[in-house]
UniProtKB/TrEMBL annotation:
Domain (Formyl transferase N-terminal) ranges: 21-174
Origin species: Chromobacterium rhizoryzae
Gene Ontology, cellular component aspect: cytosol
InterPro entries on file: Formyl_trans_C, Formyl_transf_N, Formyl_transf_N_sf, Formyl_transferase-like_C_sf
Protein name: Formyltransferase
Formyl transferase C-terminal domain segment(s): 202-280
GO molecular function list: methionyl-tRNA formyltransferase activity
CDD domains: FMT_core_ArnA_N
Pfam family membership, one: Formyl_trans_N
Amino acid sequence: MKAVVFAYHNVGVRCLRALIGGGVDVALVVTHRDNPNENIWFASVEQVARDYGIPVITPDDPNTPEVLAQVQAVRPDFLFSFYYRHMLKAPLLECPARGAFNMHGSLLPKYRGRVPINWAIIHGETETGATLHVMNVKPDNGPLVDQMAVPILPDDNADEVFAKVTVAAEMVLARSLPALLAGKAEFRQQDLSQGGYFGGRKPEDGRIDPQAGAADLHNFVRALTHPFPGAFADIDGGRLVIWKTLRAGGHSQQLQTARLHSENGALWLDAVDGGRLKVLSATLDGAALDPATTQTLTLA
């Protein structure tokens, strides 16, 4: 069986290798050029393709007549998309004889759309996962092939959850591949009423809501910490970025807005709902905050 693969990021690397390991003839890989302004903390699909001697292209737009002609020339049985960042339009999806399939980083139909892992953590979910589904012109809309859940522990950050989802994606593809190749895979329609669509996130979306409760603040911080831009507040002393917190029970004082302060040799973030977070890492204008010298900072 012959496939064309659109892929990027760690999920792209592991799923590409799963296809190769499963005996699929990957005839063409389409990926992205790395953006020099982006923090590239993930593995390279392009490098894996070159290691295996697979032709690879990096178009800015995959939906051009030139790219379509290259895909059609391969005469693929399958088209796969693994964390590729552009939507593929109908002409590309109609190329493969046996279908087009996407790997999505959530338990569809929940968290359709962009950056599903970050959104799941922001909303305090206790699990997420990886889903292989049929591609159509609507994002994350097609019938399900298989999915696998992974836990989100209360203090897991997005990087840690992404590592779990990457393994789940590889396992889902590996166990689904034999049935797909044999033409025996069973598809299940999504009940789209059981989930919603979420858009992409920008660094500016990391602004902390000073009126949020402690649980929401904790989820926000761990969803946006390294390698992402971080949860921040612009205060009198500059830009405060909170990188890591732990849930720490409550405090008795009623507050109008969240505040960060030093107490007993540690940093604490007190929320308006009476909850308290222990702050393990924070910076002010790029310099690490020292509990010994940090004054009370109000997040207004």
